[in-house]
Design brief:
The strands form four sheets. Strands 2-12-15-14-13-16 form a six-stranded antiparallel beta barrel. With 345 residues, the protein is of the alpha+beta class. Helix 3 packs antiparallel against helix 4. Helices cover 23% and strands 40% of the residues. It folds into three domains: 23-51 and 276-342, Beta Barrel (conserved putative lor/sdh protein from methanococcus maripaludis s2 fold); 55-65 and 194-274, Beta Barrel (Elongation Factor Tu (Ef-tu), domain 3), CATH 2.40.30.170; 68-193, Beta Barrel (OB fold (Dihydrolipoamide Acetyltransferase, E2P)).
């Protein structure tokens, strides 16, 4: 009889031990006493906070149109010589192009004749051969032709005139080289921009429009300067969708005294939006991803595994929609070790 009782007791011990080892993944599983005293365990309190969302837009640096001057030829002709290349720094009054034009050649011939007539009129006026009126007319004709030629550039004779830089700045656009033909009122031959101020133009698609507004602060980053952040705000949003990009254009005006931002440079524009809805918020390092689900280790002494549903994350914080309440503690250091211990691994 005593052996039978002993066997029953052994079976009960085995059953109890088996039940204790079969720990669930869910709430209220606790580690042994030694593990509770595991060093360097840190916790954080889940809090309610307004959700912050980061919206990222693609952007491009452009020259400030208000500080850009383009030269459009007024007559047809051929470029005899070009004195600049794209990206050059030029000064106001610097010679940019020499252009030969048949139209200007005829105008130069008229000016030559007009100057001779004026010289003759001045001589004859001294001898009272011509009247003062005739002298004034000859002078007016000469001045008119000189003014007309000045509109096209610096007169170099033989049908050639020089185009000079209207402002100081950098060449941001160039069309045509030596030997190229140009047409009156055609494409600009060059554009000069002062790059101390630039625009960043970002694409705002219809789905993001509700989150973007004028005056909104932005942070701009680029591949060229990965550790540098340029801060500004949206100065203007267009009201018409661009037919090619299918997006509205948001403009950010930025100072650029160090000339780091170059026209046509691609950039990333980040906008920070804060919603009115409060959500449970915890440090992102507290969240554990396992078996296609998300968990946290809750508590500060009596630990338990808690499955949670993340809604969003930003700037090192995760917003929880289900599984955790504000005021509860979550482990933020050595949480994976505790998690594995609680699961019996």
């Amino acid at each position: 009889m005593s052996n039978r009782i002993i066997n029953i007791i052994i079976v009960l011990i085995i059953v109890v031990s088996s039940c204790n080892n079969d720990r669930p993944d869910g709430i209220n599983a606790s580690p042994d006493a030694n593990f509770i005293s595991f060093p360097n365990v840190k916790t954080a309190t889940a809090v309610l906070s307004n959700r912050q969302a980061e919206l990222t837009l693609n952007g491009k640096v452009t020259a400030d149109p208000d500080k850009t001057v383009s030269y459009v030829p007024l007559v047809s002709g051929v470029i005899v010589k070009s004195y600049f290349t794209l990206g050059d720094r030029v000064s106001k009054g610097q010679t940019m192009l020499d252009i030969r034009s048949a139209e200007l050649s005829a105008l130069q011939s008229e000016l030559t004749v007009a100057r001779r007539n004026l010289q003759s009129a001045e001589t004859l006026y001294e001898y009272r051969v011509v009247s003062e009126k005739e002298l004034v007319e000859a002078r007016s004709e000469c001045e008119k032709l000189e003014a007309d030629l000045a509109l096209y550039g610096e007169n170099k004779g033989n049908g050639v005139f020089s185009i000079v830089a209207p402002i100081s700045g950098y060449i941001v656009e160039k069309q045509g080289n030596t030997g190229s033909t140009v047409s009156a009122e055609g494409e600009p031959l060059f554009s000069i921009a002062n790059l101390n101020t630039v625009w960043v133009v970002a694409n705002v698609y219809a789905g993001n429009l509700q989150f973007v507004s004028e005056g909104q602060n932005v942070e701009i980053t680029s591949v060229a300067y990965p550790k540098e952040v340029f801060k500004g705000k949206i100065n203007f949003i267009s009201q018409v969708f661009d037919p090619e990009d299918k997006a509205l254009k948001a403009r950010i005006v930025l100072p650029n005294d160090d000339l780091k931002l170059k026209p046509e440079m691609s950039v990333i524009v980040k906008l920070l939006n804060e919603t009115a809805a409060e959500m449970v918020t915890i440090p992102s390092e507290a969240v554990i991803f396992d078996d296609n689900r998300y968990f946290v280790v809750a508590g500060n002494a009596d630990f338990s595994i808690r499955e949670v549903v993340p809604f969003d994350h930003h700037n090192g914080f995760t917003y929880i929609s289900e599984g955790l309440n504000a005021g509860e503690e979550v482990v933020t250091q050595n949480q994976l070790l505790i998690y594995n211990e609680l699961k019996g691994k």
